[in-house]
Amino acid sequence: MAPGERLARAALAGVVEPGDERLGRLIAAWGPEPVWVALRKGAPPPEGVSARHWSGLCLRAEKADPERDLERIGALGGRFLCPGDREWPGQLADLGAAAPIGLWVRGPCSLRFVGLRAVALVGARACTDYGAHVAAELATGLAERGWTVVSGAAFGIDGAAHRGALAVSGVTVAVLACGVDVSYPLAHRELLDRIAGSGLVVAELAPGDHPTRGRFIQRNRVIAALSRGTVVVEAARRSGALATARHTTGLGRHLMAVPGPVTSGLSAGAHRLIRSEATLVSSAAEIIELVGEIGELADPGPEPLVPRDLLAPRAARVLEALPAEGSLGLTEIARGACAGEEEARARLVELCALGFVERVGEHWRLPPGSTRHARVVLAGKAHGGT
């Protein structure tokens, strides 16, 4: 990219509010440099931009200092990315006119590469212990499988997701609603430094800029666009995480949600998403099954086992031949199991040793109160192949 265009984009990133589609369309039509020159000179408002909006941008342009901002990001060990750079994530183009003008980045990773396999985990700031536990567990599972965890570095679910990825030395990306040199919330300064040390801290706003309510909402569209899918872990009916969910569906990405207690107001928003458009997920494997490559299926896990499941088929048939009440002789048991008497006798002796049956004279029966479950489970495992 030509130095003049990079400088113009750095200037516009400090002047234009994130997600301003009117200016996005103007930049696409004119190019960054002509737009910056027009703002700096206080030119008349172009077609499609109101005079009021344009005059506000011109006032901001008077105070803009892109050279200073580029020096500040360089002093932090960071960089300013522009569309067309090798590190620029191509999926941000899906935002159209609302795509970022540029991104200020701290951290050693390539944003483009870590964004190839990325999942967003978002949710309530005032989350429950359940929500924080689930967010950390999902982030850990994703990171262990080589996926990047994207979130907003806020209190609650965001912080738990970042920490979960960091706990297993995974890659996590924090997308901020302020400058990358601003620790917001202040209590997350150490967390943001850890993320910048091994992952990435990303912002549309120039260094030093402060967060506002509107910037948080616009930040969410970048979280959604960077990721293959978004998981809402815990969210009330009115939650900023639901804005990320709307951006996710608008971009055609996978939207997922984690269920919570039906009595919890902090799960009401997530439950509404599950009823309408989100896929219910409960593990990292289920998330990857949706957002991963074809063939990356979640392991359904083992079915619950009872001791009789460990029996070999012939022994199980003999056990089934015994009635729930009363006892039977050897001949009747062999007939019920469709086996010879010697075969039936051998299996009954094994079943007796394992605690499945007991002998009463010449008859055999289930132990009183038994439901055909072994009382000696370890022995059943050891003899499961008989």
Question: What features would you describe in this structure?
Answer:
By secondary structure, the chain is an alpha/beta fold. It folds into three domains: 3-65; 90-291, 3-Layer(aba) Sandwich (Rossmann fold); 307-382, Arc Repressor Mutant, subunit A (Orthogonal Bundle). It is 45% helix and 11% strand. It is built from 17 helices and twelve strands. The strands form two sheets. It has a nine-stranded mixed sheet, sandwiched between helices. Helix 3 crosses helix 4 (51-63), helix 7 runs parallel beside helix 8 and helix 14 (313-320) packs across helix 16. The longest helix is centred in the middle third of the chain and has 16 residues, at 129-144. The chain is elongated, with a radius of gyration of 31 Å. The termini are far apart. Mean pLDDT is 90; it is low at 372-386.
Provide the residue-averaged pLDDT: 90
Q: What is the annotated CATH architecture of the largest domain?
A: 3-Layer(aba) Sandwich
Radius of gyration: 31 Å
Q: What is the strand tally?
A: 12
Strand fraction equals 5-15%
Helix/strand structural class: alpha/beta
Termini Cα gap: 73 Å
**What is the tally of helical segments?**
17
Helix % is: 40-55%
Q: How many domains comprise the coordinates?
A: 3
- The stretches of 5 or more residues where confidence is low (pLDDT under 50) are 372-386
Q: Shape from CA axes?
A: elongated
Might you state the CATH topology name of the largest domain?
A: Rossmann fold
Question: Strand arrangement, largest sheet?
Answer: 1-2-6-5-4-3-7-8-9
Topology pattern, helix = H, strand = E? HHHHHEEHEHEHEHEHEHEHEHHEHHEEH
Per CATH, the class of the largest domain reads Alpha Beta
Please outline the major beta sheet: 9 strands, mixed
